[in-house]
Design brief:
7-stranded mixed β-sheet; globular; Aspartate Aminotransferase, domain 2; Aspartate Aminotransferase, domain 1; 2 domains; alpha/beta; 431 residues; binds pyridoxal-5'-phosphate
Length: 431
């Protein structure tokens, strides 16, 4: 464990004031929750909002609502995504069907989607991975002949607006996550949004049976959020980062997660959600642009296609090879740079699910599992960090072969120096 400035790969800060406001939710929880629901409706221009204990609980609620009026059970999801996604499908009684992804866009491989979709498909879960917007109109066009609804997984893209509208509101139904490292956080939480009255009627029936969080659980949640707020700061993050037993950043397949409504304390934490969301996404856009201006030509060409003006949750970059990915992650870890891989394997390789996908190939998902690295863009990142990360990246990308370990050690120990990026950041802040 090294005591040093240490960035989390992703973070959504909460202030002391937010924590104090959460106390109001302890006494007037239902009222606060109803207020947040109507604010979300107004902001995103949707007719119906349901607040749950997590993004996966939100997705499971949607799948249950769809399955309640259909005999179909197959749910198409990306072959590379958060393991919570298949967990939610299995929890809801669905059958996971995989569609390969395109490392160039992080979206579905649409030729593959066309092949896997069928008259027994219940729904398609379309990804907005890391804030990179999926092509929902294209997914809808493929789904339409079969009468299949498209669920937008906007867990990582709350507050992103594209030409079709707010991400999460373009498909038939969408959900956001309010988990620890998302665009904004309530410690954990999930939001279902839809404009479909029919679907909302089914969602209301399912939601009516979702229990409230117990008092003990609410208190535990509040303590966890307080600890998280303190420890996510770069001056303190070395501590949780050095404790593997916490399993930070791990993605697990576990369909036995609790399904609850969002509790009052968490709703209380969302009192200033609009300002926080806008600020958080502005920081993300600005930091992503600093990276893009710091990347050299060959790095700009690495997948996926990245464009300025996007509030990435973490900036994705597909490294030239597996070794380069590992080198960047090791250097990032040693220097506390918040650089990290995303999910360790395609969904088809999750031990509990792999028998279902025996003999099937997902080459796009394999590429991402082997070579995708994410760079931090959150509130706590500064220009100095971005300059250091870009410098480590330059060294690794420009070395065509595996770095000898002594060179890697030098790389991780080099003191940081000011750079153009740092200056650019300082002048941005001064504006
Ligand atoms: C793409 C994606 N979908 C769904 C989820 C589930 O959200 P939650 O962690 O709030 O259950 C996550 C969580 O990290 C996610 O990244």
């Amino acid at each position: 464990m090294k005591i040093q400035r240490h960035l989390a790969p992703t973070a959504a800060p909460l202030s002391l004031r937010d924590l104090l406001r959460a106390l109001l939710g302890l006494i007037r929880g239902r009222h606060v929750r109803a207020q947040i629901e109507s604010e979300i409706k107004r902001y995103f221009g949707v007719g119906h909002v349901f607040l749950l204990s997590s993004g996966r609980a939100a997705l499971a609620t949607i799948v249950r609502a769809l399955a309640a009026t259909s005999s179909r059970r197959k749910v198409i999801i990306p072959a590379y995504t958060c393991f919570s996604v298949p967990s939610a499908i299995v929890k809801a009684g669905g059958q996971v069907v995989l569609c390969d992804v395109d490392p160039h866009t992080l979206d579905f491989d649409f030729a593959n989607l066309q092949r896997v979709v069928g008259s027994d498909t219940l729904c398609i879960v379309s990804p907005h991975l890391l804030g990179q917007a999926a092509d929902i109109p294209r997914a809808k066009a493929i789904a339409k002949p079969y009468g299949i609804p498209v669920i937008e997984d906007a867990a990582q893209a709350m507050g992103r607006k594209i030409k079709e509208g707010w991400v999460g509101t373009i498909g038939d139904v969408g959900f956001f996550s309010l988990g620890r490292g998302k665009n904004i956080t309530a410690g954990s939480g999930g939001v279902v949004v839809t404009n479909s009255n029919d679907l909302a009627a089914m969602l209301s029936k399912i939601y009516a049976d979702v229990p409230e969080e117990s008092f003990l659980r609410r208190v535990i949640n509040a303590v966890v959020v307080c600890a998280m707020t303190l420890l996510i700061h770069p001056r303190a993050y070395w501590l949780p980062a050095g404790l593997p037993c916490l399993g930070l950043g791990e993605t697990v397949f576990d369909p036995n997660f609790p399904m609850r409504r969002l509790d009052g304390i968490r709703a209380g934490l969302l009192r200033t959600w609009r300002q926080r969301l806008e600020q958080s996404n502005e920081d993300r856009v600005r930091h992503a642009e600093l990276y893009l201006s710091g990347f050299r030509q060959d790095e700009k060409q690495l997948d996926p296609v990245r464009v300025p003006g996007v509030a990435y949750l973490r900036l994705p970059i597909v490294m030239p090879g597996v070794q380069e990915k590992q080198d960047l992650c090791v250097a990032g870890k040693n220097q506390g740079l918040g650089v990290s891989a995303l999910y360790p394997a395609p969904i088809s390789k999750i031990p509990e699910l792999r028998a279902m996908f025996e003999g099937q190939q997902y080459p796009g998902a394999e590429v991402l599992a082997d070579r995708l690295v994410t760079l931090p863009v959150h509130h706590y990142v500064d220009g100095h960090d971005i300059a250091r990360i870009c410098r480590v990246l330059h060294e690794i990308v420009s070395s065509a072969q595996h770095l000898p370990s002594d060179r890697l050690r030098r790389l991780t120990e080099r003191p940081a120096a000011p750079s153009k990026i740092r200056e650019a950041h300082a002048s941005n802040r001064g504006q």
